Each structure stands twice: as structure tokens, then as C-alpha cells.
User: What shape does this take?
Amino acid sequence: MKNNKQLKTIYTCFPEGKHKVLTMSYDDGKSFDRQLIDIFNKYGIKGTFHLNSGLTGIDDSRIQPAEFKKLYAGHEVSCHTSTHPTIERCPLSQVVQQVIEDRKALEAAVGYPVRGMSYPNGSYSQDIIDMLPACGIEYCRIVGNTDDFSFPDNFLEWTSTCHHGHNLMENARRFADLHKTQYLYMMYVWGHSYEFDRDNNWDKIEEFCKFIGHRDDIWYATNIEIVDYMNAAKNLKYTASGDMVYNPSAISVWISCDGNHHEIQAGETKRL
Assistant: This one.
């Protein structure tokens, strides 16, 4: 007998069936993070903050560890190496120590595993990329702008959509206008909070957040939340006929099946 049953069209979605995600990434942990976080919180934006724990005791312009947990609550604290060297020039054994010591200090301050990083001075090499998983690092942002909304082939070589000083509102408007739900889109903005004070343009990030925040079709996430979610989505287990799916992960994953959205909860087997 012929099997005339039509194949299902199944897509990975973001939480609540959304197809767009926005994430922000800011380096160095200077005191201006306080003002930036106030703006993010006002408009429902989530950020990842890459900190140098080894510089906090010698630089009064940096947020101190006692403040990390409260200030960055609802956002993510991430590695930036302990003392911010140009790591491509360093012995690999020293790079390992820079990462591990930064992680240990940050984790002691915030009370959770720190699993991400951005390369200090944008410096890295293939040897460093290969070494980072053994140091517990699952993603790392490089310097640069893609001006697009795609996902990286390797989260350890993650390029942003743009620095906040590069085509910010142009990219935001294009991102807001994306409507083809058969694709997943990510807008990723990076920078340093002190740049807004230096350039006297806090209005730039306020305008951006007001424009792009609190939208029903955008998921607002930290860097590690995106990595965790995409890994969980890849780990869904489907039957050969596509009529059931099992989620072995600890977080819910959303999918679209023939245009209908489904939440697959942690540990759940669901019939589609």
C-alpha cells in the first residue's frame, strides 16, 4: 500500500513561538554599566556583561565584585579574562589561567557558573578557540560587525550584528520589519558603556531600546540563554514519522508543526 500521509513541516521557534531574538553584549564592567542597565530594565532588554575580575581592586572606575550580584540580576555576567591582556600574544598556559581565574572570581561574586566570554582587545587564535571548552567556556564574542541577523557557525567565534556606534538604528529598523517566520533571526549589539559617556550620546541607546523594546515578536535574551536554548532545541528527539517529540533537556523548547506552535516542556514527550 502507498503511504499518502504528508510529511510534517517542523521548525524550531524561540520561546512562545517567536522567531526573533535580541541580545546585548557589553565589556569591561565600568561604572557606566549602572546607567546602561537602568535603560535596559526600563525597556525589557537583556544584556551580557563581560568583566575583568582582576582589575576591580586596582581601578575605581570599575564595578566592584560586591555589587555584581545585585546590579547584574536579570542579566548575565560573563568572562573577559582576569586582567584584559591581548591573549593571542600570551603563552597558552597563561591564557588558561586568565580565563579560569576570572571565572572563579566572577562565580564567587554572582553565585552561578560563568560559561561565556568575549575576547579582550578582540584578540584570539585557533589554539585559544580549541582550548576554551576545556576551561568551561561555551561561547565567545569577537570584535566586528556583520550587519545581518544570522547565527554563528561556531559560538566560540561569535560576531555581532553591530557595535552600537555602527548602523544601530538602521539595523534595528530592518530587524523590526522582519516577518518571514520560516527563519530565525538574531540581532546582537555590543560595545562598552563608558563610550556613551565619552561620546555624550546616551540618547542613542535610549532611542534604540525604546524603539526595539517590549515587542511581542522578539525574545529578549542573554548570550548564554541563546546558547542554552539552541542546544536544547538541537537535542529534541523526534520519532521517524515526526508525530512525537521528546525533550530530554531541563528547559522548555518551542516548535512549529505545520504552522501550529507547541511548547515541549522539560522531560515531556508530546504527540504532534
Remarks:
- The chain is about 30% helix and 25% strand.
- Residues 116 and 139 are 5 Å apart (CA to CA).
- The two ends are 24 Å apart (CA to CA).
